[in-house]
Amino acid sequence: MNTLQLDPRTKLFLILLCVLCAMFSPSLLFQFVLVALIGLLAVVSGKWKYALRGVAAYALICLFTTWCMGVMTGTWRTMFVAFLGLLHKVYACGMLAGIVISTTKVGEFLSAMARLHFPKKLTIPIAVMLRYLPTIREDWHFIKDAMRLRDVSPSLLGFLKAPAMTVNCIYVPLLTAASKAADELSIASVTRGIENPKPRTCLVEIRMRKTDWLAIVFFTAFLALELIWKVVG
Amino acid sequence: MNQQLTVKKGLAAKDLVSVGIFSALFLVFALVGGIFFAPNPVLTFYMPVGSALLCGPVYLLMLAKIQKRFVVSILGVILCIIWFVTGMHWAMALGYLVMGVVADLVAGIGKYKNKKINSLSYILISLGGTASYLVFFANPDGWAKTMLGNGTEQSYIDTMRSTGTVWIMVIMLVGTILAAAISALVGCKMLKKQFEKAGITK
User: Fold this and answer.
1) Considering only CB atoms, which chain B residues are within 8 Å of A189?
2) What percentage of chain B reaches a pLDDT higher than 90?
3) Pick from A19, A24, A132: which is nearest to B24 by CB?
4) What is the pLDDT of residues B59-110, one digit of tens each?
5) B110, part of any domain
6) What is the ipTM of this complex?
7) How do residues A76-120 score in pLDDT, each as one tens digit?
């Protein structure tokens, strides 16, 4: 299947637009349309499962929010509304970030950043960080299993029973793994010439295509619509 | 095999990769610590306390591993970008940026080797998270406006205002410093007991 390949620069710009859209969103409906728009982007990027799950979950959250606003009163309402407010604010950006991270290769990202003349001292840590976040989650599952094997409960109750033990069991493997990964990754990247002072080359051609401009136009138009709606309404 | 790479002055690729990995851990622990507090308007002031409580060992191990200038500044810049992109108040992002540079300078006094000074610099970077609340106390109206513009609910802000007194600010600042100090203490012990023995740090 022919899937959409966006330029990393476009993706970054889309994230910025998405933050602005979430900021200025005048109503719940607009938020939902924004999420649907991101879902559409996911579909054309070949991630229709991700899109379906994301939009369906958001629809449920929206329903729950309207129910909360209508039925609940008092302190509970304040708490839930505040919590949901934060969720609504972050959801769209998080979903878009998920698509961006899973579709961008590290090499492409670094090349695009080099084109934008971003300092390497900043782009390398960011690229490594984004790649390492999912690994932490994976490690955490293994560590949890290992803790159970040793009769250390990885829950809050276990923490209260034996705080020092639990803290050690969580931090030490995570930090050791991180430290080892840092050594191995840096050796691998030095071997592949990350310290080469010459400008980077990249197998994937990095340039702005028609689809890039189209995506930017779509999201900018949506932002403009929101702003107009806010001023008029 | 690591020693040969660290001889070079300035930040080598190895250091940059390490900063990236430790930033990821720092971010995860800060989020886990803060997530219970942030969405609740009464508890939101204690969010920096929660974040400060968990990150100490990560920070100290990072400094123990890479004893060079600009490492903490880069961490500050990365956190600043992440908080801004996720739609937090701008002062929080700025706070991490500024305190990152300050913490870097402070840690530099001990050449990044003195554990006590490193702990002090961790306390300083933890205070970066309190910046958005300090802005709130300095100018509640302007703060409410920014947050409303960012899409936060009116009732959240109202509740925050009714709980936000000078006392809360004192508790938040002292609490953050204490939590960071405890976290750093645990981190120091852990470094000594686990990582130095295992040969991960020198």
Assistant:
1) 13, 17
2) 12
3) A132
4) 999 988 888 888 899 999 998 888 877 766 677 888 889 999 999 999 888 8
5) yes
6) 0.78
7) 766 677 677 777 877 888 888 888 888 888 888 888 888 888 888
CB pair distance less than 8 Å for B17 and A125: yes
- Using an 8 Å CB-CB cutoff, list chain A residues near B14: 182-183, 186-187, 190
- Structural domain containing residue B90: 12-198
Mutate to test the interface with B, among A132, A167, A169, A190 (most CBs of B within 10 A): A132
Are residues A82 and B194, on separate chains, in Cβ contact within 8 Å?
A: no
Q: Is residue B1 part of a domain?
A: no
CB contact under 8 A, A172 and B11: no
Through-space distance between the first and last CA atoms of chain A, rounded to whole angstroms: 43
H or E segment and range at residue A44: helix A28-44
Interface of B with A in 140-199 (CB under 8 A): 149-153, 155-156, 159, 186, 190, 194-195, 198
Helix boundaries (H) for B7-130: 13-34, 47-65, 71-85, 90-109, 115-126
Let me know if residue B6 belongs to a domain: no
Say if CB B71 and CB B104 are below 8 A apart.
yes
**Angstrom distance (rounded) from CA B83 to CA A82:** 19
Enumerate the residues of chain B whose CB falls inside 8 A of the CB of residue A134: none
Q: Are A82 and A99 in contact (CB under 8 A)?
A: no
Digit-coded pLDDT (tens) for A169-221: 888 888 989 988 888 988 988 888 888 778 777 777 778 888 889 889 989 99
Assigned domain for B5 exists: no
Considering its fold, how many domains does chain B have in total?
1
